[in-house]
Design a protein that fits this description.
about 130 residues; mainly alpha; Methane Monooxygenase Hydroxylase, Chain G, domain 1; 2 domains; two-stranded antiparallel ribbon; about 80% helix; RNA_pol_sigma_r3/r4-like
Length: about 130
């Protein structure tokens, strides 16, 4: 589960970077649509309106898809974070340190001052209750 949470955070970071790049591309393409010229060395190149609009619309579709996926991932992260916040005491500390901070049970035992066996039992009890249907 720790790896899944880390993967989710990484996916959000990647999608955020892709979103920023698509916004930049869209701004550039917007200029091409309005000027009819694409930047090129040594001189700008004329781009027909239908071609530039097609590229612009393609970027809009890609941006919309990325925004939708980013919303799903952020909502999932918020839901997981909310569930972690609903836990209390040692259970919350263990879950937070495992899933958010990515720490091992041994590291959590050292940091909290509890025996490793106690941390392990609490962690296993929390995992079992999550998977019962």
């Amino acid at each position: 589960m720790i790896e899944a949470y880390k993967d989710l955070l990484l996916e959000i970071d990647i999608l955020t970077a892709l979103h920023a790049d698509l916004v930049r591309q869209l701004e550039q393409q917007h200029r091409v649509v309005w000027t009819g010229m694409a930047p090129s060395a040594p001189m700008p190149v004329h781009v027909p309106l239908d071609k530039s609009m097609s590229q612009y619309n393609n970027l809009i579709e890609r941006l919309t898809a990325i925004e939708g996926e980013l919303k799903i991932k952020r909502d999932l992260r918020a839901e997981i974070d909310n569930k972690l916040e609903q836990m209390d005491g040692l259970n919350h500390t263990i879950a937070y340190k495992r899933f958010v901070e990515g720490k091992s049970l041994k590291e959590i035992a050292v940091e909290t001052g509890y025996a490793y066996s106690t941390i392990r039992k609490k962690s296993m009890a929390g995992t079992k209750s999550e998977h019962t249907y």
